[in-house]
Amino acid sequence: GKGITIVTGGDAGTAEGDFASCLVWASRPALELPMLIIVTNNHVGISTRADAQHGEKNVADRGKAFGIRTKTINGNQVEESWYALKEAIDYVRKERKPFLLEENVSRLYGHSSATGANFVSEEEDCLVVFEKQIESAGFLTRKKMDELREKYTAEMLDMSKRVKEEP
After folding, report:
1. d(CA 97, CA 109)
2. CB 107 within 8 A of CB 44
3. Is the Cβ–Cβ distance between 94 and 41 less than 8 Å?
4. Is 104 helix (H, G, I), strand (E, B) or coil?
5. Counting beta carbons within 10 angstroms of the beta carbon of residue 100, is it exposed (0 to 12), middle (13 to 18) or buried (19 or more)?
6. Angle (CA) 47 52 54, round 5°
7. What are 102's strand-pairing partners?
8. Which end of the chain is less congested by CB atoms within 10 angstroms, N or C?
9. Bigger pLDDT: 92 or 14?
10. In terms of pTM, does the model score above 0.85?
11. ∠ Cα 72 51 65 (to 5°)
């Protein structure tokens, strides 16, 4: 079939043995797995900077040792992310082999109460950037985007309320 498995995780999780095991099992010759491995890399674990944790330049480089096709992209760019995901998914579906996609992203909030969950203002907010691109291209007005956000926020709050009230 065309089904694939998608595994996602953060950059800090790639320092765990499970990540290495994933690469080993996904890439066994003649037994490769149709798996898309996505690493969202904000360059910080809960409290450890990536440069103190990793020796490689890009986490995706680790897949190359296993013969896994890899790509590193700017995950804050919506269009670039869409095309990279399409390329990776098409490859995994057609070749029935793994693909390791590393997306460098902003860390907009702390990971946990251990580091504080406050907004990190010096990081690029990909939604703000994308909304500006949509508006400047004339696809949607700021007013229409705000209306859509309000509509879907209300829908999500309603769904959340209904779920909480279920027996």
Report:
1. 34
2. yes
3. no
4. strand
5. buried
6. 110
7. 39, 72
8. C
9. 92
10. no
11. 50
Calpha distance 160→167 (Å, rounded): 14
Q: Which of 42-46, 102-106, 117-121 has the highest mean pLDDT?
A: 102-106
CA separation for the pair 123, 82 (Å, rounded): 21
Contact 162, 156 (CB under 8 A): no
Quote the CA–CA distance of 158 and 167 in Å, as a whole number: 16
Pick the more confident residue, 57 or 101.
101
Q: Where are the beta strands (DSSP E) in the chain?
A: 5-10, 35-41, 69-74, 99-104
For the chain, percent of residues with pLDDT exceeding 70? 91
Contacts of 94 (CB under 8 A, 6+ apart): none
Residue 28, phi then psi, degrees to nearest 5: -60, 130
Calculate mean pLDDT across residues 151-163. 96
